[in-house]
Specification:
With 178 residues, the protein is α+β, with helices and mostly antiparallel strands. It has helices at residues 23-31, 33-36, 132-153, 161-175, and strands at 6-8, 12-20, 52-57, 80-90, 94-100, 106-116, 119-127. Strand 4 (80-90) and strand 5 form a beta hairpin. The longest helix is centred in the last third of the chain and has 22 residues, at 132-153.
């Protein structure tokens, strides 16, 4: 199984990863702000359909490495917040929520978890992402964040976020058709 995401339907991304379980532990990394902050973003997810989602990103705290923020993301130093609403909440198998950008664009993120023995198949779909440039950036971001999640679930120290993101964005620039 490749760790690279694929584009579906022109404006959606899909990633599949097998990560260490149990499924309840993986679920906690998706839904509990303190756990989610270790690999993606902290903040509240209200555990019900219609509940609020607040994603508080602070990329500088994801890994213990001295990993400077690229100049083009200088506006994210100190953190950035995205909000949304829960669309599906089916513990410990499905979490789906909107993802609201500051420019009024609303996309949809769905996590699906399936136990596979001691491991868990995690399927992430990010729908209505937008144009090719946004697909490339978002693919690199999700890939880097999922690598950190896999490392954390394996009790390993993840590599630097920004260095990985820059490399992965360049990979997706080549992988995603123009």
């Amino acid at each position: 199984m490749s760790t690279y995401g694929i584009v579906e339907g022109g404006d959606s991304l899909r990633f599949e990863r097998v990560v260490p379980g149990p499924i309840e532990r993986v679920w906690s990394y998706l839904t509990e702000g303190e756990q989610r902050a270790k690999w993606l973003a902290g903040g509240l997810t209200e555990p019900r359909v219609g509940g609020a989602v607040r994603l508080e990103f602070d990329h500088d705290r994801l890994t213990p490495h001295d990993d400077p923020t690229p100049d083009r993301f200088g506006d994210q130093e100190g953190g950035v917040v995205h909000t949304g609403k829960v669309l599906r909440y089916e513990p410990p198998h499905v979490l789906s929520h909107t993802w609201e950008e500051g420019d009024g664009v609303v996309s949809e993120v769905t996590f699906e978890l399936t136990a596979q023995g001691d491991d868990v198949l995690l399927v992430l779909t990010h729908a209505r992402v937008g144009d090719r440039k946004t697909l490339v950036m978002t693919s690199g971001g999700w890939h880097a964040h999922l690598d950190i999640l896999a490392a954390k679930l394996s009790d390993e120290t993840p590599g630097p976020f920004w260095a990985a993101y820059e490399r992965l964005e360049a990979d997706y620039e080549k992988r995603i058709a123009r």
